[in-house]
Amino acid sequence: MKDNKKLQKTFEIIDGRGYKHYNEIKGIYKFELFTLEVVHVQRDPFAGPSLIRILMDDVTFPKDLLSNHGRRIAVGDYIGCEFNKSIQKHVHGRTGSGKSGILLIDNGGPEILERTSVIINESSLEIRFSVGLPAKGRRILGKQARELFMKVIPNIVIESCIYQNIDAHDLRRHVFINEDSDYIRNEMKKRGMVAFIRNGSVLPRRSGTSDEPLKGAVKFKSPESLLVSVNTPNHGTVTGMGIPEGVTLIVGGGYHGKSTLLNAIELGIYNHRYGDGREMVVTDDGAVKIRAEDGRKIENVDISSFIHNPPMEKNTCKFSSENASGSTSQAANIIEAIEVGSKLLLFDEDTSATNFMIRDERMQKLVATEKEPITPFIDRVKELYTDHGVSTILVMGGSGDYFEAADTVIMMDNYVPYNVTERAMQIKIEIPINRKTEIKTRFGYQKRHPIKGSIKSMKGRKLKLDSRGKTQVLLGRDVIDLSQVEQLADSSQTRAISYALHYAADYFMDGKVSMEELMKQVEQALDNDGLDVLAPAGKKYPNNLSRPRTFEIAAALNRLRTFKTN
Ligand code: ADP
Ligand code: MG
User: Fold this and answer.
1) In 252-371, at which residue ranges do the beta strands (DSSP E only) sit?
2) Which pLDDT score is estimated for 37?
3) What is the rounded CA–CA span in Å between residue 178 and residue 182?
4) Which among 75, 47, 70 has a CA at the least distance from the CA of 60?
5) Which of 302, 304, 398, 558 has the fewest CB atoms within 10 Å, counting from its CB?
């Protein structure tokens, strides 16, 4: 380890020289309150910025806020936000060519996620962030670099990483919201519920592309009959609507807030920061949004429970397609989710294939069951719960046929939910329907075993693991499209998926381990060793990964062009 004076000196020496001389700053330096490591130096001012680590052994945060994994994630998330705010305060845009002078820390949106940008425990705090080393053209701007490293960065660290300098009340609130959200999720499981929507929540967003809560929105209020209260460790009694296991319909007229409620449920797999509006709106962590996704690739999926004997006699027990239809893609999405352990499927009629969801009495009369390859979801939904413990929440304003299968019916009326289950059951008797169920076989599927050669992470002679935005995984020469995988929160999760696929191929994929087992292994490794376990040799100290669920890792694998299974 070198003294920081040495770093200062180096900046003076390399000032005005060619950019490659920045390589001379690589190393570990001792500062008054922390250690700084220059891990990676960018090739030129336009390349991906350089990677810096800050290490502090003297953790000033109270031990009680770091006493368990959940609390450490929340504190880390908070520090990341503070660090980012401090960057905004001290750094005002570029100071030279390319990325000169910019500082970036990965700290995401309103979801609280485990990240590699801040790693904290009772005895150490580590921050990883990137810096655009300043230059004019290819000439090093040494004075600017010195200012950045000797003044700006230390100031940011002091402001955001020392407990005495941050708002203790705000931090505690953040940690406790995270903890109580986890608590409620766990409590729901114990009580046989799959989702909880806190009274007073603000569910709608300002726009389709915004994470901000809609101003002046109608606050969520549970109907009396679905109201549950949870005695939380930090917020006392919290009340809201509990959605029980089984089959739940969300009905109501157009524009009354059905999809908004479902979207909040989809993202309730994550905990939300204070001010988001969806704090303590929580969903079973095994919830998977299912939609039609025509055009997607399907590899060897057994969709025979939903589609059998189609014309051209494709084998639907081992169904593959480079360009799936609406109904086959929706069937595959269900099987793939259940294959890796989903216990809650979420559907919105807006994004479902009608012929997959329903076939009514009149259509059954006109088109004989024998002539229809699709077993509509309505004929499987009850069985999935009773025989396999897989619940469904379904937005369905268009067909009352689903009353046959429903356990709970919630009506949205001007953004207010009503429990209309009894009324729906009465209507079922008043207006009986004679549609036949179309199942001849029990629900089931064959397991798949991914082949190692599926993953090709090299691009030329370089390992390529990255993301482009939230929706594209970059893996070797491949781009995996996740634009229809709706429960990703952030692009650093997408990047982590790329790492996870490479990791899974390296360690566990051998054509014998099942998809389910493979994902369990990855989950186990992440639980035991954190996100850093995914970093391959040569990509040590990743600074912009956040933890994805195994459902989304599996979703990416399932959509990979080169994916092959036994
Ligand atoms: P549906 O799926 O029933 O057709 P949406 O959920 O798409 O309806 O909502 C319709 C519109 O109402 C959206 O623009 C949404 O932002 C808005 N909205 C939803 N919930 C609320 C609310 N609680 N308060 C105010 N506006 C809302
Ligand atoms: Mg809708």
Assistant:
1) 271-272, 282-283, 287-290, 298-301, 319-321, 344-348
2) 98
3) 6
4) 75
5) 398
Buried b (16+ CB within 10 A) or exposed e, 452-468: eebbbbeeeeebbbbbe
Strand bridging mode 27-30 / 2-3 = parallel
Q: Are β-strands 124-131 and 103-104 bridged in parallel, bridged antiparallel, or unpaired? A: antiparallel
Give the closest residue (by CA) to ligand 1 atom 5. Answer: 257
Alpha helix (H) residue ranges in 371-514: 381-388, 421-430, 491-507
- The whole-angstrom separation of Cα 477 and Cα 500 is 16
For residue 247, give the nearest of 105, 502, 424 by alpha carbon: 424
- Count of alpha carbons within 13 angstroms of residue 110, beta-carbon side: 21
Q: Length of the chain, please?
A: 566
Q: What are the pLDDT digits (tens) for 484-503? A: 999 999 999 999 999 999 99
What is residue 85's three-state secondary structure? helix
The residues that bridge with 479 in the sheet, in sequence order, are: 474
Q: Which of 221, 241, 259, 260 to mutate to test the pocket of ligand 1 (most atoms within 8 A of CB)?
A: 260
Q: What are phi and psi of 282, to 5 degrees?
A: -125, 145
pTM (global) more than 0.90: yes
- Identify the sign of the CA torsion 126, 129, 135, 141: negative
Distance CA 327, CA 178 (A): 38
**Given the CA of residue 252, which atom of ligand 1 is nearest to it?**
3
